[in-house]
Amino acid sequence: MAYAIIRSGGKQYRVSPGEVIVVEKLDADSGTKVTFSDVLFLADGNAVTTGDPVIAGANVRGEVIGQFKDKKVVAFKYKRRKGYHRTVGHRRQLTRVKIESID
């Protein structure tokens, strides 16, 4: 079974063809083809290739399925006996991508 480790949005993902992954927001609409050129590791059966830091000429192709927001994360600051409390929250923007091929 072939798989690769790619880097996107400062994070690393282990991907294989046909798999659906969730990455940090990509500037692409639904149905758009995307190419990940930062391939750090490539395995195909017994053949293993590692990059230094990336593998030259290796690409992972995928199709954007959609954009969505993650669950809300709440950060609550509090200082006892001072009457101070602040609530701050945010929702990460994410992209769902279906991996099509590893080249």
Short description:
With 103 residues, this protein is mainly beta. It has no helices and ten strands.
Distance between the termini: 14 Å
Strand order of the largest sheet: 2-1-5-6
User: What oligomeric state is this?
Assistant: single chain
Q: What composes the largest sheet?
A: 4 strands, antiparallel
Q: What is the element string, with H for helices and E for strands?
A: EEEEEEEEEE
Q: Percentage of helical residues?
A: under 10%
Number of helical stretches of at least 4 residues: 0
Indicate the radius of gyration in whole angstroms. Answer: 19 Å
Question: Total domains, how many?
Answer: 1
Proportion of strand residues = over 45%
What is the overall pLDDT average?
95
Judging from the principal axes of the Cα atoms, what is the shape? elongated
Poorly predicted sequence stretches spanning 5 or more consecutive residues: none
Counted beta strands: 10
Structural class: mainly beta
Secondary structure: elements and pairs:
Elements: E1 2-8, E2 11-15, E3 20-24, E4 33-36, E5 39-44, E6 47-50, E7 60-69, E8 73-79, E9 84-90, E10 93-102
Antiparallel strand pairs: 1-2, 1-5, 3-10, 4-7, 5-6, 7-10, 8-9
